[in-house]
Design brief:
Elements (H helix, E strand, L loop, with lengths): L13 H4 L25 H11 L6 E5 L2 E4 H18 L7 E5 L4 H12 L3 E5 L5 H11 L3 E5 L3 H10 L5 E5 L5 H7 L15 E7 L7 E6 H16 L6 E4 L6 H13 L3 E3 L6 H11 L3 E4 L1 H8 L12 E4 L6 H11 L6 E3 L6 E4 L12 E2 L4 E5 L10 E8 L12 H4 E2 L2 E10 L5 E6 L3 E4 L2 E4 H9 L4 E11 L3 E10 L7 H14 L8 E4 L13 H4 L8
Parallel strand pairs: 1-10, 3-4, 3-5, 5-6, 9-10, 9-11, 11-12, 24-25
Antiparallel strand pairs: 1-2, 7-8, 13-14, 14-15, 16-17, 17-19, 18-19, 19-20, 21-22, 23-24
Helix pairs in contact: 2-3, 2-4, 3-4, 3-7, 5-6, 8-9, 10-11, 11-12
């Protein structure tokens, strides 16, 4: 296909230089009028500045504990931080800026400031360790970072090895550097007039190899997730208060707690701790009307609903893993609300199959979100007409564009985005999840690449060989299980299991550690030495 890009506002052309070749792009569709954007658009202006121009300055934008920021308060912080980025840190349009913090008001303001200044936001999970952050810094050629002071140690460890990360500015208290610098900056900032197809964020996903892939999303993509899934499925209103657990480093979280509320001039309620108990408590505290979390989160909240008033909710949204029918039935019985399920992908920006209200069929994911087309492909890559089972393929206003990555060819085939999922489609066009087609382990809504866990285990001196798979777990959907062959003479006991688990937690994000460890004398292999993972997935080995 031919790809014609508009003139870029980026002085640093790194992201545009590293877009996939034109023949590897997905086919993009802009069938709906609301998905056709002007050539020049800055999504931070659309989300925030235009809200002020429309007279919403005094409306609450961010709630966090007792703190309330109005739209005007948020704009003041955003403009000051943008000035810090440009005047003090020397950022120029197109530079990538790593953001490291939990979902707190300053993190949201920093993200908007980066976008408004024509920079590229690279939000990272708070739990990532130095090894993982180093991969991101290297792949995205990052030189600048804004970091919550409580999370700076791992990033400082990266800087010690990568002096190219020339500046880390911390925030989080009145006397930290970003707050001090911001106080001396003007409260006005002229947004960079970016093109609709200038990259504004890099969303990292590990993939099944453990090597991170950077998904490149444009300014128009941020708007499309708002004007597609949010507008047509959720229909937020200015009097809504949105709340959720996913961090904005997940595009699910970026939409839920930042883009969606601002796009529709609503408010977002941020959690001090992203736990189910904190979530249900803050739903009551802020009288939240829309909640976003994983099926694991809903299962955990069910045990606490008797102690809290969540009657303010009018919508509950799930993504990140398969929503089991017993969970949505139990939530409906407890609240009278049927959970809005959805499948999205980091590569696609957000949810592209879903249903809400009377359109929900419990157990089904839903139908294609307006603006998207979804189909199934057979083993030869041909479309399956009508009901059937096959590989899920999708087209729409967003699509996969990896940064300088040969895996682009595997995700986009003949213009279709192939998500790696197997689905069944019924007579009415509803899609029902069948299975994952790759080795990604989805546990409690987190994507965990088995090879990455294996790599961490192999660094331990007691481990000779190992293999990692996902096994069913009633609480998490799946959990990480490791099969370990130890070096000669090392006792295979409970003490070593705990030692290996703690070791993995110290090297990669703690949620990736193997919750079950089985010791084997040898791993099942082919004659050529490849591990036969399918044998590990068979009973009795596949038991938790």
């Amino acid at each position: 296909m031919s790809v014609t890009l508009l003139p870029s506002a980026h002085l640093d052309s790194f992201t545009r230089d590293n877009l996939p070749p034109a023949d590897q792009w997905p086919d993009l569709r802009f069938d709906l009028p609301e998905l056709r954007y002007p050539n020049k658009i800055n999504c931070a202006v659309e989300l925030l500045d235009k809200a002020l121009a429309e007279g919403h300055g005094a409306r609450p934008a961010i709630l966090c504990g007792d703190l309330v920021w109005t739209y005007a308060d948020l704009a003041d912080r955003v403009n000051r931080i943008a000035n810090v980025l440009v005047r003090d840190m020397g950022a120029v349009p197109g530079n990538r800026v790593l953001l490291r913090a939990p979902n707190n008001p300053m993190m949201l303001a920093a993200w908007l400031a980066v976008i408004k200044a024509g920079l590229v936001a690279v939000s990272t999970m708070p739990l990532l360790r130095a090894f993982e952050l180093r991969q991101i810094v290297d792949k995205a050629a990052i030189t600048l970072a804004l970091c919550d002071a409580c999370l700076r140690d791992e990033l400082l460890a990266v800087q010690a090895e990568r002096p190219s990360l020339r500046r880390i500015v911390c925030f989080g208290a009145a006397d930290t550097e970003l707050e001090t610098l911001s106080a001396g900056m003007p409260d006005q900032f002229d947004a960079v007039e970016t093109s609709q197809d200038d990259v504004c964020l890099l969303a990292f996903t590990s993939g099944t190899t453990g090597q991170p892939k950077a998904c490149m999303h444009f300014h128009r993509d941020v708007m499309a997730m708002c004007d597609g899934f949010a507008r047509h499925i959720l229909a937020p209103r200015p009097d809504d208060i949105l709340i959720g657990t996913p961090p904005i480093a997940f595009t699910f979280g970026l939409g839920a707690v930042l883009a969606f509320p601002l796009r529709f001039r609503a408010a977002t309620a941020l959690l001090d701790q992203a736990t189910p108990s904190a979530l249900v408590a803050d739903i009551q505290r802020h009288r939240a009307t829309m909640v976003f979390t994983s099926p694991t989160g809903y299962r955990a909240m069910l045990t606490q609903l008797a102690d809290y008033d969540v009657s303010s909710l009018r919508m509950a949204v799930s993504a990140g893993e398969v929503l089991p029918l017993p969970t949505t039935d139990a939530w409906f019985d407890a609240t009278g609300l049927r959970i809005v399920d959805g499948i999205g992908a980091t590569e696609m920006m957000h949810i592209f199959i879903s249903a809400a209200g009377s359109d929900i069929r419990p157990g089904a994911t839903g139908r294609a979100v307006p603006g998207y087309v979804a189909t199934l492909l057979d083993g030869q890559g041909r479309e399956i007409q009508g009901p059937g089972t096959g590989r899920l393929a999708v087209r729409g206003p967003t699509g996969c564009r990896y940064l300088a990555d040969d895996r682009q060819r595997n995700y986009v085939i003949d213009g279709w985005n192939l998500t790696g999922d197997t689905y069944r489609r019924d007579e009415d066009g509803y899609f029902w999840f069948v299975a994952r087609a790759d080795d990604m382990i989805i546990s409690s809504g987190y994507n965990i690449a088995a090879p990455e866990v294996e790599q961490a285990l192999l660094a331990h001196p007691a481990v000779a060989e190992c293999a990692v798979i996902g096994v069913p777990d009633p609480e998490r959907g799946n959990m990480v299980k490791a099969f370990v062959v130890t070096v000669p003479g090392r006792p295979q006991d409970a003490a070593l299991v705990r030692e290996l688990q703690d070791f993995v937690k110290s090297r990669i994000a703690p949620y990736k550690y193997p919750r079950a460890v089985t010791f084997l004398d040898r791993l099942p292999k082919t004659q050529t030495g490849k591990i036969q993972r399918f044998r590990l997935r068979e009973p009795p080995l596949a038991t938790p």
